[in-house]
C-alpha cells in the first residue's frame, strides 16, 4: 500500500496486516487527514457505538502513526489474545497532488484498487 499511495504505515516486519484497511486519497486544495474505524457487523451494539465514535483528524501526515495505534487499541488488537480484527480502519487523505484513489488492504490477502 505504501508504494501505491506514497504514505508510510506503521508495520512490523514479522507481522501481516491485522485488520482490513481502506485508504481513501482525494485531490483537494487543503490538506486533511482523518482516521476512523468502521465496526464489523458481528460486533455487539455497545462496541459498534464505541467504534463508530472513533475519529481522529490531523493537519499533516507526520502524526499518522499515532491515530492508527489508537485505532488498534480501540479495536482491541493485541489484547486478550485478539490478533486480527474484522473491523475496518479507514484513512482518508486529501490534499494537492493526491490522486483520486481508494486502496483496500484485506488481512493477509491481495490488495484491491478502485480508481474514481
From TrEMBL:
The lineage of its organism: Eukaryota, Fungi, Dikarya, Ascomycota, Pezizomycotina. It comes from the Eukaryota. This is Uncharacterized protein. InterPro entries: P-loop_NTPase.
